[in-house]
Amino acid sequence: xxxxxxxxxxxxxxxxxxxxxxxxxxxxxxxxxxxxxxxxxxxxxxxxxxxxxxxxxxxxxxxxxxxxxxxxxxxxxxxxxxxxxxxxxxxxxxxxxxxxxxxxxxxxxxxxxxxxxxxxxxxxxxxxxxxxxxxxxxxxxxxxxxxxxxxxxxxxxxxxxxxxxxxxxxxxxxxxxxxxxxxxxxxxxxxxxxxxxxxxxxxxxxxxxxxxxxxxxxxxxxxxxxxxxxxxxxxxxxxxxxxxxxxxxxxxxxxxxxxxxxxxxxxxxxxxxxxxxxxxxxxxxxxxxxxxxxxxxxxxxxxxxxxxxxxxxxxxxxxxxxxxxxxxxxxxxxxxxxxxxxxxxxxxxxxxxxxxxxxxxxxxxxxxxxxxxxxxxxxxxxxxxxxxxxxxxxxxxxxxxxxxxxxxxxxxxxxxxxxxxxxxxxxxxxxxxxxxxxxxxxxxxxxxxxxxxxxxxxxxxxxxxxxxxxxxxxxxxxxxxxxxxxxxxxxxxxxxxxxxxxxxxxxxxxxxxxxxxxxxxxxxxxxxxxxxxxxxxxxxxxxxxxxxxxxxxxxxxxxxxxxxxxxxxxxxxxxxxxxxxxxxxxxxxxxxxxxxxxxxxxxxxxxxxxxxxxxxxxxxxxxxxxxxxxxxxxxxxxxxxxxxxxxxxxxxxxxxxxxxxxxxxxxxxxxxxxxxxxxxxxxxxxxxxxxxxxxxxxxxxxxxxxxxxxxxxxxxxxxxxxxxxxxxxxxxxxxxxxxxxxxxxxxxxxxxxxxxxxxxxxxxxxxxxxxxxxxxxxxxxxxxxxxxxxxxxxxxxxxxxxxxxxxxxxxxxx
Amino acid sequence: xxxxxxxxxxxxxxxxxxxxxxxxxxxxxxxxxxxxxxxxxxxxxxxxxxxxxxxxxxxxxxxxxxxxxxxxxxxxxxxxxxxxxxxxxxxxxxxxxxxxxxxxxxxxxxxxxxx
Lengths: 814, 115
Prior knowledge:
Chain A is of the alpha/beta class. In chain A, 35% of the residues lie in helices and 21% in strands.
């Protein structure tokens, strides 16, 4: 390569510009590349900022190309570098504080800026857009410090921001100028359905509302917002999401022709020679795009232009939109508001909460909306682009005309062009996926690892599955590829395994794995403990627990620590202890040189750092029952002081806590189970975040279920109120048994309640008194044969020797 | 890691019946700490008793399945024959040869003198 390489400069280190660079690198090595980015980060996936806000991804997760990638590819990356001017005559780029950079070809990809409402107070602290990592950080920080947020704008971005803020615990109100959410993509019907769904997720709305002023809290930060009608509401964070405008500052300052965006032709050329523009900053045939798919299409064309290859000109994109909010599936493409020239096809199903609408013009599909069921999104995108004449088959597929859906899905995978983008988040085409499958990938997961398709929002998974099926034909193993078993050893789920154990009368873990054709004959660390639990739950009388199918903690009745030592937590019913007990614990701790004695969150005492071989000796000397601090079982019942001593107490919470703990201790459950009993609504023992939390009042008890104070903080749901202690005991037992019988192994009640639904649980354990009796009967059967595991070990020398003793052989190592 | 078999000295660690299928046993020989496992087919395997995970911890308390174990602390899947960590994780732990002679179990260790 004797000749000097040409200089390619990119202004804007975002998704559009970097997509061009990535593709240029694949096509040619004729360029020496420099990239200017105003943010302090390497290239990241801006679309996924919603996930960062929501907490499901970290900033590191969304970095597309780390700095090392730039180095490996010989690209000079200048971050935090703001380009101020382009000298289009001498072909030089000027950035603050840097030497001018010469170019032979220049790409402007400066993206867009949030549109800031021109109202008083828009410059206050706490008023931001939702555009970059910095905004995201400000929002997360505000969520930690403040309570109320207002999001101005009920479009795609505004709604995603709102959901993220709600998820972070803020009280969020969306203020929208018109009466339709996402009015650029949805009609009133779909918008109302969306609003109802989001309200249920905790977002508040003020529709048809104009913002007049942002009010300062006196310290220079925003404190509230005033509407046109004079009303005000509190807000310590205001997110402006009322639209974006192309960022054209540099182009304008450099004499390049600008309309709403930087004007480009079908080869993405601007008015200046050898200067190109892509992405949200440009305006093509009077359109500025704000979504990712058109950016990829533009980038593909521009990369070929720069590499000197033949290319179809870019003729514009048909825009399809999906909302990235978990639990809400919305899709819109092309025309969506009916005009006189349209034929309108709709199907609205308020029970399934789905809505479909397709608009035809002269019999051809020109656009539509899908709500609730977006399986056909990919196909609709294509139809809206190619405008086919609606036929019987398409109609059947859209509105269920008795056609076999599967056949049609196959047709769609077959008829897609190779260049068509399947995964919009990562710009993966059908062709790439097909060659990956031909290269040996046979599952969606394998395709994900190899191409990145489905990795981000996952919305394209059904299409990837279809392509897989289409390419593999008869060799496609649908069951294996699609269904998720409880672990990699099986394709069966929990219910199928339970049903098979019942029907076939299976009684051992090995038998279950053998009869149900486990791919891994001796199972794994996921399925073996699960089957062991299910068998024990189904056969309380006869099942012999298998220690070898238990996770270490439950096998050894102690909690393993990172250095291989264990912790010992003795039972202290209701968190009540005595001087004798404390003396005994202190003596043991001293004798065995326990490195740490700590109070647990559940009102118990934890002895940490105990050697395995010392465990039985310590249990023997403590002479207290196991506190089960290691088990998928009742951990502790926390109690407040209650009416025994507290001047506010209305019920004997300690007495009730002890009774409950004595009743339900040692019972195996799908996951750990925490309880609390409070003597008054002040709730000092935190019943609101327990698997079963009980709050006493003058007239009786309230039962809350499904609370969780752990990874996913969840407030418990009120299951019922009872008047007597007997009812409390019965309903607690019934709920515990219902959870034991219906929970998936490893599933906490917080997840269980959400999966099964409070109504269903209420019906089974509260309303249906007959069923309640049966549940109580079954829980009594299970409780009847339980005994203390520590004591059991002490009486079983063989087990003590096998499980806890180490073999020691004196030797010298040279 | 392949051990040089010429350097190995076989040390008696106990009777076969002391090792129950599926339940690991820690064996300390001088400074060595080994995790010894008996699999369902009656074979015995010995690994250095330390998970290859960078945060460390023992292996004895693992769940045993076929000729593999699942690390008790972080669920690494480790092959008993050679100590290789299986996908999706990576790493390796030292494996030592085990022989059974007349119901007695012996482990081959380099650089060792019994005291």
